[in-house]
Amino acid sequence: MLEKSDEEIVCLVQSGKTDFFGVLIERYEEKIKRYARKFLSNKEDTDDIIQTIFIKAYVNIQSFDIKRKFSSWLYRIAHNELVNHLKKRKFFSSFDFDVFFPHSVRLHDNETEKEVNRQEIQKTIDKCLGELDIRYREPIILYYLEELSYKEIADILHLPISTIGVRLSRGKEKLKSIYNKIYGQ
Amino acid sequence: MANNFLKNNIKEQILERIKAKKVQMKPKLLFVLKAAFFALTIVLFSALAAFVISFVMFKARATGIWYAPGFGLRGIRLFLVNFPWYLLIFILIVVATLELLAKKFSWVYKRPLVYSIVGILLFVSLIGFAVSQTAMHPQLFKGVIEGRMPIMGPFYGGRIMQAPLGLHIGAISVINEEGFSIEDEKGKVFNVIISPQTFLPKGRETQEGDLIMIMGEEKDSIISAFGIRRIEEDRDSFFPQFNKHRTPIKLPGNTMK
Question: Does any CB of chain A come closer than 8 Å to the CB of residue B21?
């Protein structure tokens, strides 16, 4: 089963072999849990939401187009679920001018720079992420912690690719200033 | 260990609920129908926006305000004051709804909002313009005037297609040395006074029977013309109510009878 892709397993579940859904849970439970924990402090809330996310994925699995990436589709469900949860707690504002206008952002293409950046950012993230605005926190988690591409993040958040670039770049700056404030550097 | 237990716990719990049929996947047909309904909604909203755009273009002509900017600043002011802005706001609301609907598609959400809004506006405007070039609105308007389409009355009947204050539309009934007289759609006659400052129609000489639009104040059935524009070429499309007053043209064949 290990050699089968996510999309092939989804195809099996769609055809009625529902036990294979367990493989997908195994593959994504930790990732989704890690993603959700960055937004939720309560452990019970996190477990309930993880269950809801996988159940929603199962209920709607016939709507999944196997030509697309399953991970992006699942993260999208998780994103929606978390946004709804945070909206109930009034932590989320939906309008953003970053989405309105086009931006010119250089995408990372230099592997060394990307790696150094990633390591540097990961250290900062763990310490300061909780202080960061949700609109910047989410792309930073998906890019630096979940190691997803700009395109995948755009698919999950339903945002323009250029906006992802802007949010990552602003988020990094904000994280640095939060870090400096906390650690007095 | 504990982590593994919890991990299996969530997986087993979900699989148990699936086996017990407490959780069931929705059938594919439901999503196909949803997608079809979604596509239909987008088509209907686009058609609505295009229809209202073409209606605004038709209404601007049928009420005469379309021709007013040709009379300078005073004409532009009259156009702006009488433009159906409420319909423009309605169009913008429909476009915003279309944008929200279209955001479901990756080729829309992956691009900045300004591109998709401008794209949708251009798309519905082009269709609206194409519709305005067809005989649809003239036919509907004619149908309402002739009483064949009472259902469209709220859109084309009553005061909706009438010229606003300061504009007068009518057919020339008499031409004399001081000016001329016009007859409006109800058959009421107005005397039109021309001054040296009046904007006069360009091109061929105006004749009796020509349909014209006059901008100017009216008092006791006398209009002091600020500007005059011949709209004879638009009579059939935008002013069918004046067709009944038109003197029948005698063709050579008819004179034989």
Answer: no
